[in-house]
Amino acid sequence: MSAPALSARGLARHYGGVAALRGVDLDLVPGEICGLIGPNGAGKSTLVDVLSGRAPGSGGSVRLFGQDITGLGPAARRHAGLARSFQRTSIFPALPVGAQLDLALVGPPRVLLLDEPAAGLTAEESLALADRLRELARARGVTVLLVEHDMEVVFRICERITVLELGALLAEGTPQEIRRHPEVVRAYLGSAAA
Amino acid sequence: MSGAGRIAAGALAAAAAGPAIAALVPPGVLLSLLAQACIYAILALSVGVLARQNGMVSFGHAAMFGAGAYLAGIGLGAPGLLPAEAALPLAVLAMAAVCFGLGLIVVRVHGIAFAMLTLALGQACFEAANKARGVTGGADGLTVALPREIFGLPAATFQRAEGMFLIAWLAMVALAALAALLARSRFGLLTEAIRENEERARFLGYGTVLPRAAVFALSGGIAAAGGVLYVLYNGFVSPETVHWSVSGSALIMALLGGTRTVWGPLAGAAVYFLLREQLVEVTERWLGLLGILLVLVMVFLPDGLSGLPRRLRRRHGAEA
What we know:
The complex is a heterodimer of chains A (194) and B (320). Chain A is α/β, with parallel strands linked by helices and 194 residues long. Chain A has helices at residues 44-52, 74-80, 97-102, 123-140, 151-157, 175-180, 182-189; strands spanning 6-15, 18-28, 33-37, 59-64, 67-68, 82-84, 111-115, 143-147, 160-165, 168-173.
């Protein structure tokens, strides 16, 4: 296998005495859309924060196409090709639209971390967004890590799914494997998936 | 006309208005007041630049203003060391450099905490000006004798209202034009984006500390330029110039005029000085009346007086 697009080893993050991430390993295959799911408080957003450089990790390392980016800030990671979205819509409220586009100077990202892009959309819109996302990822060859609550969206477009629980990796596999994984069904999907 | 062309045309028209005002206003108290108003307008401009580009409210800009005045005064007091023509710009550049270094630290602090930090730093400078008697003359202040000629102009030109009004007016117009050009440049746009959403700017790939520190340096340099004119005009600078109440006055001018536009603080300074002149005739509690006016402006015109045209246009548009 070629170098992973994004590779995390032993990522940890503590808030005071609480461990939000306890040594997570993650590899994104170039060009794939990988789903990241888990119950509330599993550490999904924390993982995206540490991967994107928004929050410092308490331990572990992150590599982007083999380059160690562990010590880099968000701006430097963006230049290296790693971009992220936010749960809350995030714009510059007082600037005109043209100015907002002028500011997007860095080229398209190679790895995209999407934090609940379908939040606030109807079921129909979510599926339309999922299809657009799949098209974009294929057309541009972008690797995507998709954090999403909407299982339909995740199962529709992700080739692989990673499940977090209590800050640790619970399971990893194809959508079919994850659907049948007994631990996942117990921890997260519950009776809804049965 | 392009934006830059409009700014240049506006600046030229404003510059030409200076001699006209000087010719119309009889020499005397009023012209002296206008000269002072222009000098403090430059200080208000510097406060406004920081508020507009960085979204930061400073309670300590008198420190930059006063330090510029002291540096220029000390430089003028040692003519063997440096010619005045070098000492004056050097005072401005030195303050800009100091503010850049300081900015690398303080622009990481936001909101009320930043305001309090500037207040504390400003008062520390006030204390330093009081205590460092050997350099600043302490509470007695520093009396500065100007050399016979500066930039080919006789010293008296700088110390007479007619001369200083024109010099300060032109400096004010030039600095405001510089600030306006910078505001509409890519750099200005970037700092506004950071002001609106610093995290988003970082995730677009922009470092955010350097641009904010550069704005802080620009603001400090403009304030120091005002201080240099102050010491030239008065031939004297004392710790009172560095006192927080001077920072407060500059902030009131900037807020009265409004900081959404570059020229707002200039208008605020004009209103402040002319109104004060009228109010002191009526009551010695003029500051209270000014405070009430400031409250009214903040409530009914949150963008300040310079926001008035926009507001009227919008109301007019709504009725049409």
